[in-house]
Design goal:
Layout: E1 8-14, E2 20-26, E3 41-44, E4 50-54, E5 57-61, E6 66-69
Antiparallel strand pairs: 1-2, 3-6, 4-5
């Protein structure tokens, strides 16, 4: 997808999935301040890992992990 040294994102809506919003990203240093989403967030870690805070605890999603965050739940990323 992306070179190891570059952050990239690709965002689109899937007509085949009824307009579901999709994001394919390669982040290296990206940090997200605490925030919420109106809908479900489903994350699949295909490379590397993601550290985030959710429900008052710090988490590490490693390679192969799947993370589900419910609507209106405060989290970082």
């Amino acid at each position: 997808m992306a070179q190891a040294s570059r952050e990239q994102t690709h965002f689109w809506q899937s007509r085949e999935l009824g307009g579901v919003e999709l994001l394919h990203a390669h982040y290296i240093e990206q940090r997200f301040a605490p925030h919420v989403h109106e809908g479900y967030v489903f994350t699949v870690i295909q490379q590397g890992a993601q550290r985030f805070r959710h429900r008052g605890s710090d988490h590490l999603a490693s390679l192969g992990s799947m993370v589900l965050i419910n609507p209106d739940e405060l989290h970082t990323g």
